[in-house]
Amino acid sequence: MIAEVAVEKTQFAFDKLFSYIVPEHLAERVSVGACVAVPFGRKNSIRRAFVINLKEQNLESNLVLKKIDSLIDSSPILSPEQIKLVSWVSEYYLCSLYDSLSLILPRYVKNNEFEKKQDKSLPLNINLSDYQNNVYAEILNWFFNSEKKESLLYGITGSGKTQVFLKLAQRLFLKSKKVLILVPEISLIPQMAKIIEKFFGKYAFACLHSGLSNKVRSSEWNKIKNEAVNIVLGTRSAIFVPMIPDLIVIDEEQEPTYKSDKTPRFNAKEVARFLCKNYNCKLILSSATPSVESFYLAKSGKISLFQLKKRYGNSKLPEVKIVNINKNLYNAKSILSLELLDELRDKISKGEQSILLLDRRGFHTLARCSYCGSSISCENCSTTLVHHLVHRKNKLICHYCGFNIDVPELCPKCKNHKINLIGVGTQSLENEIRTAIPESKCLRVDADTTKSKKVYEKMFDNFKSGKYNIMVGTRMVAKGLDFDNVSLVGILCADQSLFGEGYKSYERTFSLISQAVGRSGRKNNNGKALIQTFSADNPIIEISAKQDYDVFFEKEIKLRKLMLYPPFADLCTIGFVGINEEKTWQSCLFFFESLKYNAKIKFNDIPIKILFPSKAFMTKLSKKFRFRITIKCRNNQKFRRFLTDSLIYYQQNSKINKFKINPRNKSGIHIFFDMNPEHLF
Ligand SMILES: [Zn+2]
Ligand SMILES: [Zn+2]
Fold first, then answer.
1. Of 64, 174, 367, 514, which residue has the fewest beta carbons closer than 10 angstroms?
2. Centre of ligand 1 from the C-alpha of residue 368, in Å
């Protein structure tokens, strides 16, 4: 018997299924999905591989095949649906079969380690308002009758979208249908898990996300695989659950976290679309601030649109004020305005809570010499170090690679002047509030305070129970969280995301501000929000303050069309990463030549625009130099063939180096393709 296998660490341009003879003593135990060890390459080094296909040996063939070395795991864990998905992922995201298999077969999952438990009582009924009920009726009709497989549920913050899609999920659940619900971040899992538990029962669902221990992940995975549960809640990679859902819900679909920025660089939304196209499955995208791409699809009628334009229980949108912080600051070093301080004191005196958003971690954000003006940068990355207090010690830390040093007494460059620490981060904001408002009880939520997985849940519970009256945090406090007693939201520096996120920066700013503002006054009518900004007359800030999505969309879609950005074109980034700056740049240039040559000779009928190579947004990261080529294109099979073809041409003709796909190989240059990346490379 012959086994066709996907082998680890292959170069994707030359990746294919490799054939091996199944030795007789293994014949009964090797099945499709089994993990085996095979001798590979000229040196016959032993590599892991997954069996994708088994067939009879063709005795007339002259091919001399190697034998499978041994069996690592015999359990047949791949279904035909999963194999189909794997092939699609590797073709669509230009990665090896083994890499795409790694998504579907997460490591450390062992078969058959789960306890089947059942809830005794029937799930609680979800009560909707009349207004929600109307939208629910439309969705129900879409789900059972419409030809369209995809829909957008667009509802302003606090409108109760969650209850609406859960009501549909519950109805399907009672008919033993399968539902997958994705949230954009781990920090949102505890809140959603509680709601699902309330309406479906404690044992009715499984959770899949990166914060699970190996043991728990194995058990959750097997519960799903063995159909012990029909509801799955998870983050991005849970889209590869071992089941075909009848309904997929992607909550806050505009969030960039649904796109992976490591190989395979998949987007959970696109994988969901693949499942809908190939199986009996429907997709709901849910959002208060839909991505421009999704809203465009909805407006043009390609997908169905459902709208909730009123807040739940008639609570009103908060009253929003824009505060110009070129003046009116508490003191010269602060970014707290006098107005915001007054409001904070007022809310505390009324026993209400506030949330402050500042998207910068640490204490001071810059360490700069007052004499020569140089700031202290990371040794490994092209970024400045940020001041943190770590166990009462003054440290300068790189937010990208973790490099850190003690704060130096004197400037390392001119050696005779003192280093000034300037700029405000969440850590110093917390201190400042304690000084300015002695009666405040302040909780800080950022990546530094939430390192372990149980911490979010505890922090949010403590805030909910009223242990604190102010929560200070990075963007993780801005989204999706629901606290009844919050009546003030302060955004400390709204300008930040206006610059530097590429063509998506306006969309991100709009989304962040309107989401943050939406945390205020969710259960009563006196919600307030203060937006502090240096650019008070920027129209995007103004539109976001009003949460006027329609106006934002009309403005933005015109711009995207004019500039040929998504949804009017796809963007493909080709990244080059290497330890030697000159060699990396030269290979980037040569690849550019390969692309141009190939576009002219073999692929002159596809519409593309190849932009000249440039330095990456972060020019150096963890000691490696980074360059990029951007192509405006249509992402279809022909375009992907053009890329693979150009890569092969590059490899066969480049004299500069033989590039290695393995990033651990230090001398090589790593090249990757990224389709519609969410962040600027
Ligand atoms: Zn200096
Ligand atoms: Zn660094």
1. 64
2. 8
Which ligand has the nearest atom to the CA of 368? 1
Provide the number of structural domains found in the chain.
4
CATH number at residue 657: 3.30.70.600
CB 322, CB 536: distance < 8 Å:
yes
- CB neighbour list of residue 369: distance below 8 Å, 6 or more residues apart: 375, 411, 413, 414, 417, 418, 419, 420
Task: Give 664's pLDDT tier (boundaries 50, 70, 90).
Answer: very low
Which ligand minimizes its atom distance to the CA of 618? 2
CA of 369 from ligand 2 middle (Å) equals: 20
More confident residue, 519 or 295: 295
- Verify that 138 and 43 share a domain, yes or no: no
Going from the C-alpha of 353 to that of each of 392, 441, 488, the distances in angstroms are 29, 10, 7
Query: Residue type at 282?
Result: K
**How many A from CA of 512 to the centre of ligand 2?**
26
Closest CA to 630 of 594, 671, 669, 675: 675
CATH of the domain at 196: 3.40.50.300
- Ligand 1 mean position, distance from CA 375 (Å): 8
Nearest ligand to the CA atom of 382: 2
Pairwise pLDDT comparison (392 vs 137), residue with the higher score = 137
Same domain, 156 and 305: yes
Ligand that comes closest to the CA of residue 369: 1
Residue 503: closest CA among 321, 206, 293: 293
Q: 628 C-alpha to center of ligand 1: Å?
A: 33
pLDDT tens-digit readout, 576-605? 999 999 989 999 999 999 999 999 999 999
pLDDT at residue 452 greater than cutoff 50: yes
Quick one: 458 and 478 in the same domain?
yes
622 CA → ligand 2 middle, Å: 6
Structure confidence at residue 106 (pLDDT) = 66
Check: CB of residue 251 under 8 Å from CB of residue 181: yes
Q: How far is the CA of 472 from the centre of ligand 2 (A)?
A: 26
